Amino acid sequence: MLRAMISVATLAMGLLDGAAAQEPLKIGLIQSLTGSFSTVGKATVNGAQLYVRQHGDVVAGRKIELVVSDDATAPDRAKRIAQEMIVNDGVAIICAGITPSALAIAPLVTEAKIATVVMVSGASITVERSPYMVRTSFTLGQSSAAMADWVVQNDARKIVTIVNDWAPGLESETVFKNRIATSNARIVESLRMPLANPDFAPFLQRARDLDPDTLFVFPANQAATFARQFLERGMDKSGIRLVGTGDLTDDDELPGMTDAELGIITVHHYSALHDSSLNRTFVEAFHAVYGRRPNYHSVAGYDGMHLIYEALKKTKGSVNGDAMVAAMKGMSWESPRGPISIDPETRDIVQNEYIRRVERVNGQLYNVEFATIEAVKDPMKVAKK
Fold first, then answer.
1. What's the pLDDT tens digit per position in 200-220?
2. Pair 163, 177: CB distance under 8 Å
3. What's the CATH number of domain 141-268+352-384, 3.20.20.70, 3.40.50.2000, 3.40.50.2300, 3.30.70.240?
4. pTM of the entire structure?
5. Model confidence over 307-357: pLDDT tens digits?
6. How far is CA 195 from CA 108, 117, 169, in A?
7. Are 216 and 149 spatial neighbours (Cβ–Cβ below 8 Å)?
8. Which pairing describes strands 338-342 and 332-335: parallel, antiparallel, or unpaired?
9. Cα 254 to the chain's mean position, in Å?
């Protein structure tokens, strides 16, 4: 039944690509607007909307229409939405969200041959699930590997890791541990937290009892709560250095944090304080429209729309999935996060990673970049070669 429905969708796509080219080109954003990842989905959608607002809603002679739908942080719902978009709504391009939802829709976009931009998922495996997926977000390994290198270079010898017990957390930990394994440092214990866990006290106490010099954490979308509890327990004064990926000091949460966050070191591919004229313009425009800072999800949505627009220019408005993906492969441009490109072999983003420290700038907390690792590819795929 599903195969038959998708075949009809494929036929409809062919008609849209040709005779009905003057009709609106629908781009479907399947994002988490409610549920535990609602802030992630909203930031991504806002980034995409801002790009259209700035660059117009017509590209290659095609009128662009964004169709935004809430998967409620539920992969089964994302799958149903994708099917409806393809079969009933005439959506020509899809923008995928969190990892479970992106994986759920992969078979559908593959069957329908619809170009799909991964704007949120950071799991290495995601784009491998469909040849029609191209990523503008990040991979977890990019920042985890860079963080491992930095802590080793800065005298880490005894490390404890604490990550959420789900695929992204485990992937982040795996890359970090693999990188540490080639150094003189050692990981004395790896602790796993439930994804929905408001009380980190048992894990923090266990980490403290182990007396490490470095604590590497990946607390998913609970970074502010984790950091607060780390500080409330006085662990910032224990001599334990708290480090992690950019999730730990996310730009949209930092304004609500306290000076106790000062000095926390993270590695990530974007900071709202990234020093470029393009980023300053982006941050000002985002704040003017939405009343808050953009974060790394916002910039992924923004860059995702850039990728789609530029690919459509190359295909002269054709939404044929194979042509769109071919146009996206190898594309490079200057993003608010810095120079980025699409790896033609993996369809993953290649981007700089920045070592950052939380500092107060003009009265507000920011991630201040102080070192750059250029053109980082997904280390998990590099390791497979």
1. 999 999 999 999 999 999 887
2. no
3. 3.40.50.2300
4. 0.92
5. 999 999 999 999 999 999 999 999 999 999 999 999 999 999 999 999 999
6. 27, 26, 9
7. no
8. antiparallel
9. 18
